[in-house]
Amino acid sequence: MKQRYGYILFELVLALSLLAGLMLMSHQWFARQQAVQERNSWEIEAKSFIAAIERFWLTERRVPTPLSELVSKGYIADIWRPWGAPWVVETQDNLLRLQTQAPTTSDANWLVRHIAGASTNADDEVQLHVWQPIVLALRERYLQRIADPIAPEYNTMDSNLDMNGFSINNVATLQTKVLVGTQATVQQAELTDLRASEVSATNFSANAATIAGYDVLAVIQRLQQLEQKWQACRAQGGCQ
């Protein structure tokens, strides 16, 4: 009878050991599954985060600075922070770089492998790179037929324009610092400073003019005075 009790106790200990082993294995399995699901959520949320930044950049014609503008303007519900650390934002002409600290090298490497353009360094800092939307890049490279009120610089040139002999027609207002040409036909012109080697005009009207160093208005006034004296002299019959 005692021998049978011994067998029962041994079987109970064995069963408990097997149960403990199964529970440990199941706990580890659930932990691994939870870690996989958490990492998969990083990938989904990271891509959504980057997409929200791109939409903001495309719509607002600028990067979101600060990142909280993504939330305040309705582009995303909340700022994604996979490990709770804040994002360090660095901007360049056509690139937005976001950097945050990963808790482990494994976490940093996993996220970098699953996000296009992401990188990590020796300090386990993860960097996400968001490039300027190609539509904006093209708009900045070419003049637009219709001005963009949000980005007036799209209609501003940084280089000379050679028309190769072709015409520019129907110009309402032309503002220029220097105008160089061989021939011009103008119905009406207002000039602040005109310098020319030769001027031919049917009707020339000016408030002030200087020719060969002489004030035209003063010369005209002097001629008028001489004309008056000449007429007075002729009226008195004393002019020769």
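That was protein one. Protein two is written in the same sequence-then-structure order:
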Amino acid sequence: MVWNPFRLLKTLVHFEVAGPLSRGLRHMPGMTDSGVTPTALDGASLEPEPGLPMVWLPGAAAAAVKSLTQALEPLGYGLTTAPWEGAAALVNTPLVVWGRPGADLALESALEQLKQRAIYQEARLIDFCRPDPAVAALWGSLDDGVMGGVSTSQVHWQGGLRFAGHVSTANSGGFASIRTRNLEPPLNLGRWQGTVLQVRGDGQRYKWILRDNPGWDSLAYCRSFDTDADGLSTVRTAFLEMVATRRARTIPAATPLNPARLYSMQLMLSKFEYDGALNPAFDAGAFGLTVQSLRVYRQGPQPVVVLPRETANVGHHLAAAELTGVIPQAEGFEVVGASDRLPPQVNPEAVRAILSALA
């Protein structure tokens, strides 16, 4: 393979770094990987969409699932029945129903486990399985051809955002990537703590990169992540944990990423990690990564525990675990534990529907 000057021109045109030629040449056939003429899209157009609130009923029987689903759907709630021991984190789950999920698990132990779980609020930023034409037009290839290499990548829309191609270490190269053009004004995610990528990979280690400066060669804030060759992976990345780099060299004195002004996003496969270290999972040749969705997250409030039946010392156990719960009464329910009031994120009608369905 030999270096392709057309790919370099295509890169410079897409990212509008070819001077006055960029605007005129970008409408020529073959100048965009997305196949879509660039249209206006600014950071203010990308608004996180809150996720469906979920009720967690661990290990529920089919009859309970059916009755609860029918009761909760009109109120805008979903239902999950993941096993008690299997859920490492709770996402958009304001209500948990406890009904002795295991014979050896006492309420006190269950509440202590619940207290230790990570609790997140998530919102969808981009559904790549249903791409907006303006979102599709943002993405373009940025490979080692800019420095004489011969790696090639493309953007496809196949079950999501498909980053695929061939990476080669020839000509001192060894990376392929796709990047967005700058958002103007930038994307403001200052109210969130990080991003969540839902990806289907090939077993290689990739990089997720954000920039809070519009400069072409500005600091790149990176997070490396491994992929599963046989299934989906969830990549949760805290903004504060992203590493400031320039050309794969870390910049320890750099300020943290500012999520309130994000100008661009990038996915990369590189033979290098950082500061000259090699990517231990790198494999030259064909590669492919599909991103199904991009979400944002932040720490969520503790869920309210619904107990369909009276349990001894329930208020004491809840208070000790710093949790709030509800128990049924002859008419309605009582809020006990760390608070005597439901938090604002919990709809009282949902609590009544749960207690009625499980009575």
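The helical segments are 5-14, 21-25, 62-72, 107-116, 133-138, 314-320, 348-358. Keep this in mind for the problem set.
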